[in-house]
């Protein structure tokens, strides 16, 4: 798990793994999609705009689907659930929601521009899977979208470090136990010490505490909003510092971090499937396969329909080794959506099979 890949020398600016891999995937998608468009004589100028729209719609759609799926569990009980929607501290995202919204937004864009929809969908499908493969590697480096438990002797089983998302989930489900020294008690809950807090360097530690104190000093006691996330984080930061040494709660207790830093290195999650890497490998293979289908297609839209079928089938398989909540007939919400996509794509492909094929002729 490497949420930060490296820091820019001299600036101390951290390069975070997840956005870096997303950016890398977008550049790969842009390069391959423009090349594919030129190969069939289509204008490649709309490709960058389409990829940006797809990325923005994907981010929004992922979040919308997560909020709808986990509203009761993660949001309904909060004092200000609307504010929490825009704060990724409260849950994450679900990819299929992003896929669906991205498709709808691109459909609207292409209709407005009067561009050949099926041709451009065929061009983008392999490239978007390529981008997704890089994104899933980013998921693995960050620690999100983890898989279910697996045998400890599985050669590629992975264990994530203390306070990572998989570790936290297993602790909340009482599958793991940690000593009291790694727990911090707030006024309304008991939580794990955030790994990022325990691994701070001394200058950053003092800076964060100063920012927290300034935030609390500036608040107006007559207009305090209990749902103000910024104040909540400031209060938790000072509570974590106080818990390090209750005898000196008002001082910076950085010196007490050392023993805890040694202690957290002894704790890891139970072995789980690296489902993010399964997804990345599957996305790269499907991107290659769809690129080959593109070269041999006889009608526009064929590549996109194969994308619907193959991607959905793969997603249904992967959902069986993830830890998502199960609903109808033991399927997760993502599995049900993928099943619908699979049925629609398969039906349309079968209908095409019984029609006379003709070579795609891009408009002049």
- Describe the biggest sheet? 2 strands, antiparallel
Number of strands: 4
Instruction: Give unreliable regions as ranges.
Output: none
Q: Give the number of helices.
A: 14
So what's the overall shape?
Answer: elongated
Strand order of the largest sheet: 1-2
What is the arithmetic mean of pLDDT? Answer: 85
Fraction of helical residues: 55-70%
List the secondary-structure elements in sequence, H or E.
EEHHHHHHHEEHHHHHHH
Structural commentary:
- The chain has 2 domains: 4-148 and 273-353, no CATH class; 177-264, no CATH class.
- A hairpin with a 4-residue loop joins β3 and β4.
- It is mainly alpha-helical.
- The termini are far apart.
- The strands form 2 sheets. It has a two-stranded antiparallel sheet with strand order 1-2. A two-stranded antiparallel ribbon has the order 3-4.
- The radius of gyration is 24 Å and the shape is elongated.
- 59% of the residues lie in helices and 4% in strands.
Topology:
Blueprint: E1 4-8, E2 13-16, H1 17-39, H2 46-69, H3 71-75, H4 81-85, H5 95-113, H6 117-142, H7 165-172, E3 183-185, E4 190-192, H8 195-198, H9 202-218, H10 229-244, H11 257-264, H12 275-296, H13 302-319, H14 333-353
Antiparallel strand pairs: 1-2, 3-4
């Amino acid at each position: 798990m490497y949420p930060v890949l490296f820091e820019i020398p001299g600036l101390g600016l951290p390069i975070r793994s997840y956005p870096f891999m997303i950016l890398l995937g977008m550049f790969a998608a842009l390069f391959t999609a423009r090349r594919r468009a030129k190969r069939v004589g289509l204008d490649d100028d709309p490709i960058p705009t389409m990829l940006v729209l797809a990325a923005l719609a994907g981010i929004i759609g992922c979040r919308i689907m997560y909020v709808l799926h986990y509203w009761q569990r993660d949001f309904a009980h909060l004092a200000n659930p609307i504010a929490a929607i825009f704060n990724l501290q409260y849950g994450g995202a679900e990819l299929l929601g992003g896929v669906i919204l991205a498709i709808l937004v691109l459909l609207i864009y292409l209709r407005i521009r009067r561009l050949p929809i099926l041709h451009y969908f065929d061009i983008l499908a392999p490239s978007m899977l390529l981008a997704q493969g890089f994104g899933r590697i980013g998921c693995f480096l960050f620690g999100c979208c983890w898989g279910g438990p697996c045998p400890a002797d599985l050669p590629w089983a992975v264990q994530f470090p203390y306070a990572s998302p998989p570790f936290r989930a297993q602790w909340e489900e009482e599958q793991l136990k940690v000593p009291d020294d790694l727990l911090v008690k707030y006024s309304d809950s008991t939580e794990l010490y955030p790994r990022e807090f325990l691994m701070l360097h001394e200058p950053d530690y003092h800076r964060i505490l100063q920012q927290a104190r300034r935030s609390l000093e500036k608040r107006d006691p007559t207009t305090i909003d209990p749902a103000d996330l910024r104040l909540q984080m400031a209060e938790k930061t000072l509570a974590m510092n106080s818990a390090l040494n209750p005898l000196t709660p008002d001082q910076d207790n950085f010196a007490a971090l050392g023993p805890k830093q040694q202690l957290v290195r002894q704790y890891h999650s139970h072995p789980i499937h690296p489902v993010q890497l399964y997804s990345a490998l599957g996305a790269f293979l499907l991107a290659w396969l769809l690129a080959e289908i593109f070269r041999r297609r006889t009608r526009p839209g064929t590549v996109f329909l194969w994308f619907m079928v193959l991607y959905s089938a793969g997603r249904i398989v992967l959902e069986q080794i993830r830890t998502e909540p199960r609903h109808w007939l033991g399927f997760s919400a993502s599995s049900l959506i993928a099943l619908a996509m699979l049925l629609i794509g398969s039906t349309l492909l079968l209908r095409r099979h019984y029609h006379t094929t003709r070579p795609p002729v891009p408009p002049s």
